């Protein structure tokens, strides 16, 4: 980290009408009565912080590097709010609206890498009290004593001391907190700094071997702050004729380059000894780092708020698990143009292993001991080597492993059929909640048994029930009830004037002068309501605030009981209510894709050898209609016409369809059908007729082929159209 001079004037985007309109909406929300805000979420449009011009302005300000760890971050940098948008954590409570009013404050925005953004989350520890509600940024700076370094306001070199082994040590409580919050001593970062410092040392000792000093000390050089810190140490220990090297930043680097350039050969020969002493000093710091007396008023407790044991899921590897012989799925570490954590939606025809993927993930994440509680279901998970009948005689080892971003830990599950032995991780990797396709809620059951296995049982047992949370909900008061009400407003899509109120032992919606209890709502409403409350109940056992809660939620056949309007908004609503929960769901309904990103949707399909694999090179579904989705590679239908209509046409025409001895379908059209097809010409122009002819050939081949060649067929069809149109044009 190094000092960066921020321009006084904000970039053009932050003064645009879009931002002014959004700021007005934020202030209108924040100026509402506090009791009114307690059961509402702000409607901040966080996609504005993914605006390309804003990101580019910040990227140029910090010279293509993360503001905090100085890793070069060109492609996937993001906007970070130093003072968070909401839910800032204090040792005794969560301040839900701090610091939303600074959402578009130029001096509060930074360019950061993915890791630093996720490491910081909503942390902003301060010594003593926070600034008054809705204080100006100038007043915030006057009132607060932050424990995080601001590289555009502070001089980081006073609080951070970098050493030749790549480690950084805090010279103060502020430096210590900054290192802890941003993970500035994470392994890969320490290695990168150590390598960079070694390159710098080599350039001093072996002239001409490495890049010139002017290049290594250029403002856009990676880990420049670490190099400048080391230069200060060298300057103090190196004896040379000339003025002392002083200053910070560019003045320090210019002074050192000038001294090194003017130094005699004898003076330069001192440098290897100086560098060796720096190496020894680094080793001493490693064994005896500086310590500080921590008091309750220091605010350092806020740095150690609860965090998930592992990060987001990165890879899912499944072997010999029911129909899945060898399947690998990957998940991104973040969304590219939206807030919240990545999720996964799995599509595919029946018997392509969608539900099996959810079961496999659950068993690996809950750990060996909890998986053993589901032992009665596990023998049925062994892979069947024959697709035409159930054949488990080879007794292959069932194996599941799940990797995590920014972590070396792997959550695992395996089952040896011959030994009937369950192996895997010793403890749950994270909070896991699973819902099978039949979500039966038992009004007589109030609580689940202890342990993670009980929270995923419905994925394995279709008759297992979920406790109805009505009694638990009736017990909730104060901030917990307000948290639940604010979440349900989003999930139930209540209008601004609607209210969620207590009605005896039940909850009710008051809208348009009418009061309707939750139990009186439709099955779809109640299904989503109960599932949402069940998730909230589980998360509140581990976290103080559901917006900070991190977990994995598995839902099989998401669309169950839902009206089409709800299907279109269910993922958006769930992800907004639980922004740090990874949802992994299956569906047969294209409407449920709304709220997902293109890389988050996969299709499982059997290839020509009946192996289940994800379909590659799927097109973007963002602008597709539901009907287009049905006929795309996501769902694979040739037409959305009623199948009985096509059969009736064939029957009337006297067409016959039979299966050949080789197993292929053969169509024997009637004479009348052949004559009709021969006379039929589609399209009003030559170009349209060429396209139509190519399309018909593509659909014929598509119907006959299996999953692994479909993308190739599409590409061949497009090439054929281009070739035909070119020939027509040239002719």
TrEMBL record:
BP GO terms, sorted: double-strand break repair
InterPro entries, sorted: AAA+_ATPase (IPR003593), ATPase_AAA_core (IPR003959), Bact_Antivir_Def_Nuclease (IPR051396), P-loop_NTPase (IPR027417), Rad50/SbcC_AAA (IPR038729)
Organism annotation: Pseudomonas fluorescens
Molecular function GO terms recorded: ATP binding; ATP hydrolysis activity
Residue span, AAA+ ATPase domain: 340-607
Name the record gives this protein: AAA+ ATPase domain-containing protein
SUPFAM superfamilies: P-loop containing nucleoside triphosphate hydrolases
Superkingdom of source: Bacteria
